[in-house]
Known about the structure:
Pfam families: SBP_bac_1
InterPro entries: Bact_solute-bd_prot1, SBP
Mean pLDDT: 94
Helix content: 40-55%
Low-confidence stretches: 1-13
Number of helices: 21
CATH class of the largest domain: Alpha Beta
Radius of gyration: 23 Å
CATH superfamily of the largest domain: Periplasmic binding protein-like II
Shape: globular
CATH topology of the largest domain: D-Maltodextrin-Binding Protein, domain 2
CATH architecture of the largest domain: 3-Layer(aba) Sandwich
Strand content: 5-15%
Keywords: Cell membrane, Lipoprotein, Membrane, Palmitate, Signal
Strand order of the largest sheet: 2-1-3-11-4
Protein name: Family 1 extracellular solute-binding protein
Structural class: alpha+beta
Amino acid sequence: MIGCSSSTKGAQEQAGESSGKKTSFSISFRTGNISYAENHPDINEDKWVKKLEELTNTDLNIRLMQQKNFDKQMIQMFAINDIPDVVQASSSLTNPQLAGSVEAGVFLPLNELLQKYGQDLLKKIPKEAWEMETDEKGNIYAIPEWLSNPSRRATWIRADLLEKTGLPEPKTVDDFLNVMRAFKKMGVENPYMGREDFVFSDMFFGSYDTFANFFTKQGDQIVPKFMNIENMQKTIQTYKTMFDEGLINKEFVTINPAKFKNDILAGKAGIWNMNANLLIQWDQQLKEQVPTGKMKLIASPTGPDGKGGLRLVGTVPRAYLINKKAKDPAGIVKFFNWMVSDEAEKFFTFGIEGENYTVENGKINYRNPKNASEVDEETFRQILLWFVQDTTYNKGALSLTSEGRDLMKFYDTVLANEGRDGIQFEPQLQGYQKNPDITPTADKLPPVILTHVINMVYGKESISDYPKVVEEWLQKGGREVVKEATERYNKNDGVILSRHK
């Protein structure tokens, strides 16, 4: 087991069992595109939720938010002031999902509560993760989940289909396009699996180093990477080539997360992008529909500089804020403190003794899921319900099998050496907070840029006009963003430098 900082007895006491009083609170979190959660008739009656409540002496009122509408639901929640006791959000106190609620005083500073009831959290969670959830006055406002390896997204391929083509594993952009062409000739419906707004279908942005939410130095200025005109035009041209040749679905801009996943698991895709930690679960689910199917992770396509990789994500994928109106904030912090205990790790990783695993001579014998629905249920328990953990991968489960050990090796050898990021700012630039139309999110181009890029891929606008698109962005407030970014960079004011050179 991965080392944890509190004993089972201590964890139970901190979860409230020593006093006998149940901690009741409401909590909202996204479904993570996990079918078990999205299709559940009543998540509050779920057996894993009930077991979690039993272990922590709590009574949870869960509000699930559908993954595809999460940002909109968050903004609406704050607009109508229907805010639960605990709110899950993405990283950063100034991210648009929170709609300025931290600055407006909606949530509690947690410093004193963490000192009293969250010592294990303070010891276990890395300093860098806490910094992302701390304001300029030193107030901690959220309890973060964390990533020890920021390169969690990977390029996937159907290894069985690649073998049939007779082609070697692709390396460069051109190699990947050639494999896709071979897949198309074989009748693969989606040689490359696209998704709306290029989310999880953005590996060629990595090839050309044009991820929108990162900045770079251009002359004396600090500018967003989509202002690299030449590389953005190459990026767009690559997707247009795929569109023109039928290597990506003609309706990719309307493919939502659920269809994206379902088409892949139905064997309709050749290459796609997704978080690497899902490999074993998705491969097993594929085999239910395509018994000869085999998924594999490979290095992402390299661009002109010989580098590539998916977007390096932040240290904090998800974080939990406590409403200042919550009746028992101390009990809530105790609940989250339990999440980093040995008992919690054993429960979330392996489930219930006698049902999911047995113990012989101190060794855990885990009963692996037998079908797609059991895999989805395991994913719900190990990933979605385990609110605070190092979410890079589940070491306890992966260590038990050769496939799991191979996956950990891929993280440590391939993913650790690829991926793109750039200069970032925390707190977010004021210029971005003022105008959503010019603001990128973690996964998406700014709306004003995205609309034109999609039109260019579809052939409705000329790629040669991309400089005009950048000029439009500058006129709508981008100049102020560049000015602010440059000034803050020169003053070293909240600057986060690239992790990969």
